[in-house]
Amino acid sequence: IVWIADIAAYFVGRAIGRHKLAPSISPGKSWEGAFAGMAAVALAGLATVPFEAMSLALPSRLVGTIGWMGAALVLALLAALSIVGDLFESLLKRQAGVKDSGNVLPGHGGVLDRIDALIPTMPAVALIAELLG
């Protein structure tokens, strides 16, 4: 979920992004990119449903419980949550006056930059999976 959203948002935002999402926190992010990330996660998740033999994966379980549109909405909201995690980590870095959260992963901004979107998304996925039974 997280990396599909990130990749789609990056490429679409670079290509057609005109409206800044949070310019004072993360000036490279755009609304166009954010919506593309959300749409990409919904489409990619739903595209896996016919290939899930045991129907244990989250997209299949969502479709079986709340239908295709409901599943697309939940997947898109999970992508939005990943963007919030990314923005929150960027805000923390801005407030601390640092460019990178560490130097363990040179060129990637640090470990926290690699997992920032996972931090809010993983518990949400776990909660949804638990609610689905």
Structure description:
The protein has helices at 2-16, 31-48, 58-96, 111-115, 118-132; strands at residues 20-22, 26-30. By secondary structure, it is mainly alpha-helical. The protein has one domain. It has a two-stranded antiparallel sheet with strand order 1-2. It is globular and about 45 Å long. The two termini are 20 Å apart. The model has no long low-confidence stretch (mean pLDDT 91).
Summarize the topology.
Elements: H1 2-16, E1 20-22, E2 26-30, H2 31-48, H3 58-96, H4 111-115, H5 118-132
Antiparallel strand pairs: 1-2
Domain count: 1
Class computed from helices, strands and strand pairing? mainly alpha
Q: What is the CA-CA span between the terminal residues?
A: 20 Å
- How many E-type strands? 2
Strand content of the residues, in percent? Answer: 5-15%
Radius of gyration computed on alpha carbons: 16 Å
Helix content: 55-70%
Task: List the total number of helices.
Answer: 5
Overall residue-averaged pLDDT value: 91
Strand line-up in the sheet with most strands:
1-2
Order of helix and strand elements from N to C terminus: HEEHHHH
Give a quick account of the main beta sheet: strands, pairing sense, barrel closure: 2 strands, antiparallel
> Which regions have little confidence, pLDDT < 50, spanning 5+ residues?
none
Shape verdict: globular
Keywords:
single chain, 133 residues, mainly alpha, 5 helices, 2 strands, 69% helix, globular
